[in-house]
Amino acid sequence: KSLFRPDGESIYSEDEMLFYRTKQSTYEEKRPHLFEIADRAYSALMDSVKEGQSGGIENEDPVLLMEDHHVPGKVQNQSIIISGESGAGKTEATKIIMKFLA
């Protein structure tokens, strides 16, 4: 698959990164992309922080939260698992995701 859009710009360019970072674009407009995966993980992390600050998560049933291994009022960590065969691009994918999160 090509790493360039039809206009010749890289699919990992700054413009492409901003497209995935902006909340103005809808989910339907966004194509599957490493930037989308990174944005979803970051958004979930930030949402858990907001829930902890606003009191929203404290109003949840603590037993259910503990069953999900989530302590009320605490940040819920996020992970991105990158797997594949040797030479599949795991290191490059990690670099691209870290660039997005930086």
The Cα radius of gyration reads 17 Å
The major pleated sheet works out as: none
Strand content: under 5%
Oligomer: single chain
Give keywords.
single chain, 102 residues, mainly alpha, 4 helices, 46% helix, 0% strand
Question: Can you walk through the features of this model?
Answer:
This protein is mainly α and 102 residues long. Helices cover 46% and strands 0% of the residues. The chain has four helices and no strands. The chain has helices spanning 14-21, 34-54, 62-67, 90-101. Helix 2 (34-54) packs across helix 4 (90-101). The radius of gyration is 17 Å and the shape is globular.
How are the SSEs ordered, and which strands pair?
Layout: H1 14-21, H2 34-54, H3 62-67, H4 90-101
Produce a short descriptive summary.
The protein has 102 residues and is mainly α. Helix content is 46%, strand content 0%.
